[in-house]
From TrEMBL:
UniProt EC number: 3.2.1.55
UniProt-recorded name of the protein: non-reducing end alpha-L-arabinofuranosidase
SMART domains from the UniProt entry: Alpha-L-AF_C
Source superkingdom: Bacteria
Signal peptide coordinates: 1-21
Assembly, per entry: Homohexamer; trimer of dimers.
Keyword rRNA-binding: no
A Pfam family it matches: Alpha-L-AF_C
Organism: Duganella qianjiadongensis
Family: Belongs to the glycosyl hydrolase 51 family.
Reaction(s) this enzyme catalyzes, per UniProt: Hydrolysis of terminal non-reducing alpha-L-arabinofuranoside residues in alpha-L-arabinosides
């Protein structure tokens, strides 16, 4: 059709009050060039001694009326198991650099009560310590990521914790572990030396931290079968100097460098923006800010590539997620925030970015698992609800340990508002362990559905089957009165003339198997 005819048709459609059917976005999945494995640990969680992230949210103690196993809530553990949590980071965060592990072993009623100086100044009973944490991860079938205390601890204290955790000998510390109920060493998948050394972990420079790290790591002598992957605490936000300095100076003594980036709607820590009741400007700014993670991954990987071109070191994003203004009427030190459909899109957009960097990004931890920041689960006494973020994690389970498949997006439009502009569709694909190809699609536009045509060159796609997560409002969320307000629904389409076309609703996450 020539230009003139197209214009005449367009004008007559407009006159008839019709809406233009825009060209569909094309998604072409290339199964002939499989990429790296998407490490399941990209879907890791973070549980800090912070607010009711652990006490109340996860741990109620064995004598609680709330049904529990060894003190851990059965309802919460059951829900976490259903979302296949692969890894849990503990005990912090900022808390880790003031945590003394010996306070958390032995009879619980004899453990010292401390003050949680980072988070609300509340009493820390030390009821949850090393053995309790491992009970939790073992119940979840997850791996453990333990964060050591570089801030207020000593080399000796950290080295003794490693011995207590990992020694199979008859040493006094290994025998103390046995006396406390654990015969065989614990399996520690990752161990970090400090946290946010540029800030709450000691206000250091990367050079100073690198020297301290080298010294401490020398004395963390775990026996080979139990040796954790060692993590150097890295930078945050736009600062790539930590990735640069640490990958240069520590490459023989570390397995990876951490990185933190939080999504703040306004981009300003002083006034971050609300978790609910926000305008569309804060919808788009939140998603635009979260998409900056891609730039962060590129820049930090490039910094590491200079010293580690073979990519032996991992870039571990061990804190990420949304951070909003504290909810009115809650303790500002507890970092409790509501969790909406917007958070589910934030999670999905980050997954898509992490998949695209799976050659370097092999582990991440969303902050945090229960009741804190971008949580999976919110509890109130004996009640529990699943957040939209939980559903995004659960929908993406097939991507854990799947093989990344490149895809090409064509005709993707920009969703724009008041000078901000982001791609409308974000997509990722992988071949999972069940042999199937999975595709995840995010429509960032809160007002308009998007037509998408899915093809796999060399294969006749017959259908796509999976689920969609969406809702009527941008800030739709689950409450104890309506805990199922936001939840996934079935989503499928079959091929017509050898092509599968789907309509992705406005503000939605879709995950499908491509058959
Ligand atoms: O996740 C909350 C806090 O944010 C962590 O304790 C700290 O590492 C970061 O600043």
């Amino acid at each position: 059709m020539n230009y003139l005819k197209r214009s005449v048709l367009a004008l007559s459609l407009l006159a008839a009050g019709s809406v233009f059917a825009a060209e569909p976005v094309g998604v072409s999945i290339d199964t002939s060039k499989p990429g790296p494995v998407i490490n399941k640990d990209i879907y890791g969680q973070f549980a800090e001694h912070l607010g009711s992230g652990i006490y109340g949210g996860l741990w109620v103690g064995p004598n609680s009326k709330i049904p529990n196993t060894k003190g851990w809530r059965n309802d919460v553990v059951g829900a976490l198991k259903a979302m296949h949590v692969p890894l849990v980071r503990w005990p912090g965060g900022c808390f880790a650099d003031e945590y003394h592990w010996k306070d958390g072993i032995g009879a619980r009623d004899k453990r010292p009560v401390k003050v949680n100086t980072n988070w609300g100044g509340v009493e820390e009973s030390n009821a949850v310590g090393t053995h309790e944490f491992f009970d939790l991860v073992e119940m979840l079938g997850a791996d453990a990521y333990v964060n050591g205390n570089l801030g207020t601890g000593s080399v000796q204290e950290m080295s003794e914790w490693i011995e207590y955790l990992t020694s199979d000998s008859k040493s006094t510390l290994a025998n103390l572990r046995r006396k406390n109920g654990r015969d065989k060493p614990f399996k520690v998948a990752y161990f970090a030396i400090g946290n946010e050394a540029w800030g709450c972990g000691g206000n250091m420079t990367p050079e100073h931290y690198a020297s301290l790290y080298r010294n401490v790591e020398t004395f963390l002598r775990a026996p080979a079968p139990y040796r954790p992957r060692m993590i150097a605490s890295g930078g945050n936000d736009n600062d790539t100097s930590w990735s640069d300095v640490l990958s240069k100076q520590l490459k023989r003594q570390t397995d990876g460098i951490s990185f933190h980036y939080y999504t703040i709607p306004t981009g300003k820590w002083e006034v971050k923006g609300a978790a609910t009741g926000f305008a569309e400007q804060e919808w788009i700014s939140t998603l635009a800010n979260t998409l900056r993670m891609d730039e962060h991954m590129k820049r930090n990987s490039a910094a590491m590539d200079q010293h580690d071109p073979e990519k032996k070191l991992g870039l571990f994003v061990d804190e990420w997620g949304t951070w909003y203004d504290v909810e009115k009427g809650t303790n500002a030190g507890f970092l409790f925030q509501q969790n909406t459909l917007r958070d589910a899109l934030v999670a999905a957009l980050n997954f898509n970015i992490f998949h695209a960097h799976a050659d370097r990004v092999r582990m991440t931890n969303i902050a945090q698992m229960v009741n804190v920041l971008q949580a999976m689960i919110i509890t109130d006494k004996d009640k529990m609800l699943l957040t939209p973020t939980y559903h995004a994690f659960e929908m993406y389970v097939p991507f854990q340990n799947a093989t990344f498949l490149p895809l090409t997006l064509s005709n993707n439009r920009q969703y724009a508002l008041d000078g901000a502009s982001i791609p409308e569709i974000s997509a990722t694909a992988a071949r999972a362990s069940d042999g199937k190809v999975y595709l995840a699609l995010v429509n960032t536009n809160p007002r308009q559905a998007a037509d998408v045509a899915i093809t796999v060159p060399g294969q006749t796609v017959k259908a796509v089957r999976g689920r969609v997560l969406t809702a009527a409002a941008m800030d739709a969320h689950n409450t104890f009165a309506a805990p199922q307000a936001v939840k996934p629904a079935p989503f499928s389409a079959t091929a017509v003339d050898g092509k599968v076309s789907v309509q992705i609703p406005a503000k939605a996450v879709v995950v499908v198997a491509v058959e």
